[in-house]
Amino acid sequence: MSTTKNCLAAVLAAGLGLGTLTACGDSGDSGGDSENVTLVTHSSFAVSKDVLREFERTSGYKVRVLKDGDAGRAVNKALLTKDNPQGDVFFGVDNTLLSRALDGGLFQPYKSPALSSLDADTRLDPKHRVTPVDTGDICVNYDKKFFSERKLEPPKSFADLAKPAYKDLLVTENAGSSSPGLGFLLASAAEYGDQGWQGYWKKLKANGIKVVDGWDQAYNEEFSGSAGGRKAGGERPLVVSYASSPPAEVVFADPRPKTAPTGVATRTCFRQIEFAGLLAGARNTEGGKALVDFFASKAFQEDMPLNMFVNPVRAGAKVPAVFTEHGTAVRDPHTMAPGKIAEKRDDWVKSWTSLVLK
Amino acid sequence: MTSTDVTSTDVTRTGATAPPRVPRRRQRRRSAARLGLMAVPAVFFALFFAYPVAAIVGRGLRDGGHWQFGRLTEVLGDAGIRQVLWFTTWQALASTALTLLIALPGAYVLARLDFPGKSLLRALVTVPFVLPTVVAGTAFLALLGRGGLLDDLWGVRLDTTVWAILLAHVFFNYAVVVRTVGGLWSQLDPRQEEAARMLGASRAAAWRTVTLPALGPAVAAAALMVFLFTFTSFGVVTILGGPAYATLEVEIYRQTADVFDLPTAAVLTLVQLTAVALILAVHAWTVRRRESTLRLLAPESTARAPRGAGQWALLAGVLLSVLLLLLLPLAVLVQRSFDTAAGYGLGYYRALTSADSNVFLVPPIDAVGNSLTYALAATGIALVIGTLAAAALTRPGRAGRLVRGFDALLMLPLGVSAVTVGFGFLISLDEPPLDLRASWILVPLAQALVGVPFVVRTMLPVLRALDTRLREAAAVLGASPLRVWREVDLPLVRRALLVAAGFAFAVSLGEFGATVFIARPDNPTLPVAVARLLGRAGELNYGQAMALSVILMAVCTLSLLLLERLRPRTGGAAGGPAAPTGEM
User: Fold this and answer.
1) Under a CB-based contact definition with an 8 Å cutoff, are residues A60 and A85 in contact?
2) Is B62 helix (H, G, I), strand (E, B) or coil?
């Protein structure tokens, strides 16, 4: 009788062995192939198929895209795996996390020939370990209908947000886990100074600011102006989102409305710059370089706005009409040097957490 | 042989009677065979569980080749972390109590009352288990959040309160209690209670002195499982609790993925691992103390049509609670998936088949195929590993400490943070010959880790109940070992294998925490695709997320309905494994 069970075991073990073998066999074709170039990025990365195909046709490389969670998490994951990276190029580290990536040794230097045609304000690494790809503005968005119905002027500035007229209207994201949340905190620090921002946030808290974990919840569930939020019964007419969210509301609606249902409080903005870089342990460095050049190319830069709702950094790259029609150009966004962000970020997030959340 | 998972499992092992004396040589051969059977699952767990988890903990706690255990006291001394520990514990206790309170009447009704649509109801209450927490969380938000049903009716909002978390925990764990306790309840001989009443005991006294002690162990087992699942709760807490609430699991995730404070994450992982090991040890202890003298009957013979106002009221109450807590959130979800800008229709479902979406490089509907493929592979792996483990655990011979430790080890993946496992896979399985990071098999492997405990729990009682004399008789009559296996063992365990496969499949299908880290972007699974769609603005993405969730729900429901058909005649035997988790 014990032989019976042993036999069963052998059959099962053989089955498992087979499974493991196929598993091993399967992994063989993934790395090291110089015809493949692998992009590691966050979940918001998007590119039109034909634009990507054109790159593949002219460069001869096949592009594999590994998307991983939201921006901060993708960076952290890349840092965790940096000794044996999952790909050749990383796209999507922004100015708020740039120093963490650079100090962690995530990238190797590569000076793209296209660099000179990119906006000088966005070239933040003198060692050329990263190349700027796009900019976006993190701003408070408002629900047009809410404010017009109440004949209330939508807020424009940080100071407005703390006024009693806007009590219990704003929802923002956790600065510890969400990049718009962190951007909004940094913008307030840029406005009120290293010491002053805490006093401002006390006022915001007293004025009934609501904090949720991520942009998804804030924008698609709590905000009353977005399609998702309207459906979910969101009742906060102010949300921390992007300057490009209003055009997104138009593009993704079916049928498209004539005007965007939301607007942007232009003096609450924080300029976010996203970079791409060649990963330190890249297997296919040549392919990786070609991919970085592609991100800086006119074709990609012009394709980007409608895919990722960000602004190009390349001089002369055209932005689609729907984007300019429904979007708001932010003239003077808040900024902060990556070095300063690196120095203060963790402390600020910690004191923000105990100040606002607890 | 009639048995319930929770009762027979462990009764047989410790056994009321001492095992027959066997010659020492034979005993040695037996333990060798047991070790042989244990080898494959042990290697599997070492490679795909212990090693990755150790790697990620080591990354956090080793500095310059030395373990930095000083971090332990440092982290545990932090007021914020202590608050997390306290919240984790008390919400788990409260969730468990609330689940028992609401689900025990359900267990009774499903066990003892006979009414039309009973098997449908049984299947329905099991659906929430296997739903990804993203979906359930969003559905609950729509019910309890702003603009939700409660808000519309009475202006009550429960989101970002602990009540939302507790109710969602009841939603997920209702079936754990119904299956574990109800399975046994349906087989208790009602005549014992009747006899007590005949002898003059009041109804309450009879229940307290006869039924309750018999049910006690099953209730304890269910309570411990619910406690385990809610103690390690992740998705529910992040979605419904908001940023102010964090369980250990949530904090591990935040420390790793957001703050990138690996030492703190490593300390918390160790704390959670210890806590889970303790819970499992208590579970094993209560199981070992179970009485073996229960008189069990076929479940069909104990269920009766409701009689009297009390039973009708109970039935109505249970139906109402199932309706409100379990079905309503799902109904809201379904309603939203059809509620397009152009009125009710299939618009969002049609959009799923288009590759033009900016969220995916492939049509989202492809996720259905991916999910099914991955879940099938995971089921295969879990069945092989789980069955071998169960076979090892049922080998004749004394069950030593080694075997009991092995049994507990198999359950451990249920309680270890999915994010730890996911990150661990990434940093440990990255070198040949085990460079699996880019391989599709990584996802099924992670899913199988969660599936194995269910396979083991399902197979153990059935394997233990196999009458060895049948096999011996066949062998004596000249059947080859293979033929004995094919004609004796297989027919006997086939049903249990199918049920185990069904559970492993459903759990794999819903796995989210680890999959989200390792699934390939061009091959998303259903839960991953839903989360990704939810992360994008715009009505079309939101609607597609709802539609895809409904599809996932439908696939899960179908596989569970199939399970109900396959429920072994012995009722609880396979119907009540430790219970899958909606989490992890």
Assistant:
1) no
2) strand
Amino acid at B111: A
Distance of CA A17 to the CA centre of its chain: 42
The nearest CA of chain B is from the CA of A300 a distance in Å of 15
Give the minimum alpha-carbon distance from B465 to chain A in angstroms, rounded to a whole number: 14
Q: How many Cα atoms occupy the beta-carbon half-sphere of A208 within 13 Å?
A: 11
Q: Are A226 and B515 in contact (CB under 8 A)?
A: no
Q: Whole-angstrom Cα distance, residue A232 to residue A315?
A: 40
Size (chain B), residues: 584
What string of pLDDT tens digits covers the 584 residues of chain B? 333 333 333 333 333 344 455 566 666 666 677 777 788 888 998 889 999 999 888 888 877 677 777 778 888 888 888 889 999 999 999 999 999 999 999 998 888 888 888 878 887 887 787 676 767 777 887 777 655 667 767 777 777 788 889 999 999 899 888 888 887 787 777 777 788 888 888 878 887 888 888 788 788 888 988 998 899 888 788 777 777 788 998 888 888 878 888 888 888 988 988 888 888 888 777 766 654 455 566 666 667 787 788 888 888 999 999 888 888 888 888 887 887 777 788 888 888 877 654 455 567 778 888 888 999 999 999 999 998 888 888 766 555 666 777 777 778 887 777 778 888 888 888 776 677 766 778 889 988 988 888 888 878 777 777 777 777 788 888 888 778 777 877 777 787 788 788 878 888 887 877 787 777 666 788 888 877 776 665 567 777 888 888 888 888 777 777 766 765 544 433 333 333 333 22
Q: How far is CA A189 from CA A349, B83, B116, B491, in A?
A: 11, 28, 64, 70
**B188 contacts B219 by C-beta, under 8 angstroms:** no
Question: What is the rounded CA–CA span in Å between residue B512 and residue B524?
Answer: 11
A 281-320 residues with CB below 8 A of B?
A: 306-307
Segment (H or E) for A325: helix A321-326
All residues of chain A having their beta carbon less than 8 Å from the beta carbon of residue B33 are 2, 5-6
B155 CA to centre of own chain = 35
B437 contacts on A by Cβ (under 8 Å): 27, 81, 86
What is the three-class DSSP state of B341?
Answer: coil
Global pTM exceeds 0.80: no
Which of A30, A71, A35, A64 minimizes the C-alpha distance to B429? Answer: A30
**Which residues in chain B have Cβ-Cβ distances shorter than 8 Å to A245?**
537
Interchain contact, B427 vs A231, CB within 8 Å: no
DSSP 3-state of B256: helix
Place of tokens 């793209």: A112
- In this complex, the residue of A24, A211, A219 whose CB is nearest that of residue B537 is A219
Burial of B331 (0-12, 13-18, 19+ CB in 10 A): middle
Distance from CA of A138 to the nearest CA of B (A): 15
Instruction: Give me the phi and psi of A136, to 5 degrees please.
Output: -150, 160
Instruction: Report the alpha-carbon distance of residue B413 to residue A288 in Å, rounded.
Output: 38
Q: For residue A286, which of A30, A40, A59 has the smallest C-alpha distance?
A: A59
Query: Pairing state of beta strands B339-340 and A62-67?
Result: unpaired
Provide the terminal-to-terminal Cα distance of chain B, rounded to the nearest Å: 34
A344 at the B interface (CB within 8 A)? no
What domains sit in chain A, N to C, each tagged with a CATH number? 36-135+273-312 (3.40.190.10), 137-271+330-357 (3.40.190.10)
CATH architecture of B30-575: Orthogonal Bundle (1.10)
B182's enclosing H/E stretch is helix B162-185
What ipTM was predicted for this assembly? 0.71
Integer Cα distance of B337 and B349 in angstroms: 8
Q: Which residues of A touch B266 (CB under 8 A)?
A: none
Asked if B520 and B440 touch (Cβ cutoff 8 Å), the reply is: yes
- CA gap A220, B534 in Å, rounded: 8
